[in-house]
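Now produce a polypeptide, keeping tokens residue-aligned:
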Amino acid sequence: MQNSSPEPAAAPEPSAWSRLGASLAAREKVERALLVVDRARVQMLAYVRRSQLLARAAPDELLMAPPDLRVPDPSFVDELRFGNFGLAGEIADLAGRSPFTHAVVSAAWARELHGFGWLRHLDAVRAEDTERLARRLLADWLQEGSRDKSFAWAPETTGRRLMSWLSHSQLLLDGADPRFYAAVLRSFERQASYLSAAWQDAPQGHDRLVALIGLVLADLCLAGHERPLKRSQKLLAAEIERQIFADGGHIGRNPQTSVELVLDLLPVRQCFLVRGLTPASALLRALAAMVPMLRHLRLGDGSLARFNGVGPTDRDALATVLAYDKNQTALPPLAPASGYARLERGPSIVVVDVGPPPPLSFAHSAHAGCLAFEASVGSEPLFVNNGAPASSDPGRRASARATASHNTLCIKEQSSSQLSRRGSLRGALAIEHPDHVSVRIAEAAGALELEASHDGYVGRWGLVHARSLSLAADGTKLSGSEALLPAKGVLRFAWDVPFAVHFHVHPDVEVWPGREPDTADLVLKSGAHWRLSAQGAQLTIETSMHSAGALGPLPAQQLVLRAACHGEAKVSWQLERMPPGCRPQHAASDATALARSLAERLALAATAVNATPDGPATAGPDQRGPDNPEAQPGPQE
């Protein structure tokens, strides 16, 4: 018996998810749809190419082994003997198991595991037992690790694995069993074929270049890959042209990325030359430009300025890269395409970020540090941004991206950039704004003068931040001014809006209250004494956090100029080297004062300030600082 036709049901109440989807901006919907369509197109092409390429016979031999320029750590082998497998700052206790059957410690750990970059540590202590260990681990990957679908076959990981296997092929294959040798060569072919089809699935930026570099090296080093090499070389050249500026900077604006790329591209150039082939002009141009750019961004202590994702500097890697610039080419003070300026006089170096954020597809590790600067004196760092932490702690990484974690001005503890959900379906959120950054550098009586401005606060406050810096001819004085100017017409707020100019001090530098109000004394490890003084703002000594320490985050101090504006405002400051023999007031009476702890110095600073009727008040527990993520928001959504 059939039931009668039911009454048409009322339209269901829209769910929360459907309401959320309806609320998305039209532009974001279109972008997401285009991304999905493009991903489907790439996957379809990958299937077609893979079906053709896998039919090609496996190569009979390897033609060469490219050099691995990264510095090895022989202690890694000792850790392995104790059953520990440490990668990406995480340690896995293997308990006698293969790392490829061990539970994933973290995503970064898994990517490094499947990338095999750790082979260089085994190759550094080349012996019969390490050769056996390397082959056993490689056999474990062929049997178990290659089945991993989450990390092993990401195109950028596959590219890194090809580079590592090729560079250390002697460790893996010299004297190996013929069956094992043949299995490894078949895997080489399989991975190269897969990468030839899937390289576009790698995220935009450095990861995509890694995928293509691995593909080009495979085509250079595997016999019978002359025809695929022509295609892969063109793909790599096009991506280099797209990502590397004429002045040598990377489109993502992270200086550390350039170090990694040079270490990967130099072996590619060497392999072309060994085979008697001409490298693409884009590759040669990029190498010639990137190394001088890295020297442009290096402070006197040998570290890279901590901008846009730079964490602890690998000094050995940077020294290896810089050694390839025989002429030590110097760039002009301003690198306009990359957006970085360098003021250098006498022993003093000041590096300034004068560029907007990268395009959205490349801005997932960028920082909201427009117009921030770092400074060093001789081989000693003085003012440094907090920098990106080495750990994967998302809270600390988000805080390090904020404007208040940089040596620049921020309004009401808000960042000059905003978070954006556009441009990618995965990864950390990108940032956008400021949109317009102007900069001018001139020389006057031997001094270098910089004037720059950005519009990052125009949308929320209608104010433009303008900064001027002047480094004296002998490098003993750095003068600066910060101005908040109306974007148009005359601007008046109904209430005072607070703003602050942050000067984060390197942990090795000691900070003391000055003898005069709104001054502070800074003592470097060498004993050199500098003084910061301010006009138009209250100078406070507050806690900070140096996130880019080689051994992890370190407590530090910062000098903060705090003021408020009801429209246009200006603050001036001056950093000047004091004459020899001049000591800070609170250190002069105590021979052991310079050895006091950070907490003791902060307490002394608070006592000294409170004892001065007109002196500034140091930060209390309720004041905002970069180690208080609730009080100091990151880039705004």
